[in-house]
Design brief:
By secondary structure, the chain is mainly alpha-helical. Among the domains are: 17-94, no CATH class; 285-431, Rossmann fold. It has helices at 17-32, 41-44, 57-66, 68-77, 85-92, 97-250, 285-294, 304-308, 317-334, 356-360, 374-384, 398-406, 414-420; strands at 298-303, 338-344, 364-367, 391-394, 410-412.
Length: 437
């Protein structure tokens, strides 16, 4: 059964809210009487709620409309003033109550329309006030924008003037900067020239000092050798004079002319570089091949990594050593009178890798001890070989070359050895302009 009446037929449940709630209170009051008056069955279950549920008003309306006895009890328990006129008419239902209810409904609709119109007028007035306020605010903002625009124009004019002055000043500063930059470039170039001259002078001075030290050493060695030879001659002369006196005392006659007597040369006191033919420049490919080919029992000490790193830079270190030993084996077969010794930094943890050909041809490989550089091993080897054997040292390290030169060794640059072995140099720039120092 519908809880809502059609317009013009019956009031709505919302219009009857106050009357329906009054009916609920009448039912609750009846339960408290003695003896209690039982409410309708469909309403009894709703009275258990402490707070009456709004959704149950339709059910209350159905109970009141269906139960004439309960409706009569509610009418008797209420005063007309306790509920709305529409609710009382629906509840009491006097004669002609429907026409009166319709008249009240139409009047309520007119009042609602009037209230809606009044509210619309109020809203319009408020909207008008807001529009007028917004207009005034917009006018104030426009005036402020006009003032800011005028100020911006004034500032823009001043900024253009300042920019013009700044451009003039910047042009002058740029000109000064260019002049200063030119002076700086000239000063830097002059400094570079001075530094290059200083470096060349320092190199020449170092070379001169090295040559002076070498000459002083050679002079000391020559004086020592001269003194030793003079002492030997004096000793031999004294011995001869003594033998002559003894012979004369014994009555022997001396021949008119002495037979030539072979006097063995004194043992060398220091090593000297193997001589080169006139016109053959030292530390060249031709000079190195001449030494390898002609000097008997020649010892060639090679700075291993110093040579290997220049031709096989992209290979692992172990493979570089393999390649170098193979090439030295081929070189040893060409110059069988020379002894080739390669010195590396570190310990030979993989000695067995040495190519059999290189080992059988007499190419020796040595490794420095922990904490000792290969440079020191090469310099010390120069002192270990007999002084009558010539030594060639292959290295580009200045300390090794200087130490070897002081010990009477010939010097060959690694680039020359690589050329003799038919190899290309991976880093020719690193040797550009190399001089024997």
């Amino acid at each position: 059964m519908s809880t809502e009446a059609k317009p013009g037929d019956s009031p709505t449940t919302e219009e009857l809210r106050e009357t329906l709630m009054a009916a609920v209170e009448v039912a609750r009051a009846g339960q408290k009487e003695k003896p209690p008056v039982e409410p309708p069955a469909r309403l009894k279950q709703l009275l258990a709620f402490r707070k009456f549920p709004e959704r149950a008003l339709g059910q209350v309306r159905e109970v009141v409309e269906a139960d004439e006895e309960f409706r009569t009890r509610v009418v008797e328990a209420l005063e007309e003033s306790e509920v709305s006129r529409v609710g009382w008419l629906w509840l009491a239902r006097p004669e002609g109550w429907e026409q009166e209810r319709l008249a009240l409904s139409e009047e309520a609709e007119r009042e609602a329309e009037l209230a809606t119109e009044a509210q619309r007028l109020v809203d319009l007035e408020q909207g008008l006030h807001r529009a007028e306020a917004a207009q005034k605010k917009a006018e104030r903002q426009r005036d402020k924008a006009d003032r800011e625009r005028d100020q911006a124009k004034s500032e823009a004019i001043q900024a253009r003037a300042d920019a013009h002055h700044a451009e003039e000043a910047a042009g002058e500063l740029e000109s000064q900067r260019d002049q200063a930059h030119a002076k700086l470039e000239a000063a830097e170039k002059n400094l570079e020239r001075v530094q290059r001259r200083e470096a060349r002078t320092e190199a020449k001075l170092k070379n001169a000092r090295t040559q002076i030290d070498r000459l002083n050493k050679e002079l000391r060695d020559s004086r020592q050798q001269h003194d030793e030879e003079a002492g030997s001659l004096k000793q031999r002369l004294a011995t001869a004079e003594e033998r002559l006196a003894m012979a004369q005392d014994a009555g022997f006659e001396l021949p008119l002319e002495d037979e030539p007597v072979f006097v063995p040369p004194p043992p060398p006191t220091h090593r000297t570089p193997a001589p080169l033919p006139p016109g053959l420049l030292k530390d060249t490919v031709d000079a190195a091949e001449h030494l390898f080919r002609t000097v008997p029992e020649l010892v060639v000490l090679i700075d291993g990594y110093n040579v290997a790193f220049k031709s096989w830079t992209d290979l692992p270190v172990r493979e570089q050593r393999v390649r170098l030993m193979q090439k030295l084996g081929e070189l040893s077969s060409r110059y069988s009178g020379a002894e080739f010794v390669v010195v590396y930094d570190g310990t030979a943890t993989d000695y067995d890798y040495i190519p059999t050909t290189a080992r059988s041809l007499g190419v020796t490989e040595r490794f420095s001890k922990p904490g000792v550089e290969a440079d020191d091993v090469i310099i010390d080897l120069c002192d270990e070989y007999p002084l009558n054997r010539h030594i060639v040292v292959v290295s580009e390290d200045n300390r090794v070359r200087s130490g070897a030169r002081d010990r009477g060794a010939n010097l060959v640059h690694p680039r020359k050895l690589l050329e003799i072995m038919g190899l290309e140099v991976d880093d020719p720039q690193g040797w550009a302009g190399f001089e024997d120092r």
